[in-house]
Amino acid sequence: MSFRVALYILKLCGVIMISLAATTVKPKAKSGPYTSTALGLKTCDNPSQPYVKDPVVRLTLDKNYIKKSLVKGNVTILKDTQNVKTSIKEFYYEDRKWQMTFNVKNQSCRSQLGTYSFEVNYNTLDHLWMANREYGRLLRRIEASTKAGTIICLEFEENVGPEKH
Question: Which domain of life does the UniProt lineage start with (predicted)?
Fold first, then answer.
């Protein structure tokens, strides 16, 4: 699975992160207006179990755009799917380990049969969620699942630094 599928599923499910009430760790870095730079994107090494071996979603991602902080690709939903649940976890790298800063889960939703293309500016997307944030290295993990198990799990890493003018 790829990042595109997760983005599409999140869009379908209407995930809007306005408040991050489930904060568990407060990073100690400076914070303020920022620029996000994508460092990498990959499928999860250890997705939540059970992991569906032949999911109803196919994702293709153009990795050439990651260095430009763009995420571009296609997602194909092979079958109408009810009750898709998503979660987004964010981790902050501190003291040589990843520490969770928040975990957002949403209501179930439906994904519809079809192929969808997308192109997202990662920095712009990040700013939809918050105008100011802690500087440092972050990891976001996005999972989508059905009753059968996890259908996609993606992790993307970013560097957050002072806003560039």
Answer: Eukaryota
- Above 50 in pLDDT, residue 93? yes
- Measured distance CA(29)–CA(109) in Å, rounded: 36
> Considering just the CA atoms, what is the radius of gyration of the chain in Å?
16
Spell out the domain ranges in the chain. Answer: 3-16+24-162
Amino acid found at 78: L
Which CATH number is 3-16+24-162 given? Answer: 2.60.40
Note the pLDDT tens digit of each residue in 39-88: 888 888 888 889 888 888 888 888 776 667 788 888 899 988 888 998 99
Kindly provide the residue ranges of all beta strands, DSSP E only, lying in 70-129, ordered along the sequence: 70-77, 81-94, 97-105, 109-111, 114-121
C-alpha dist (Å) from residue 96 to 92, 133, 162: 10, 20, 22
DSSP 27: -
C-alpha–C-alpha distance, residues 109 and 83, integer Å: 5
What's the pTM? Answer: 0.75
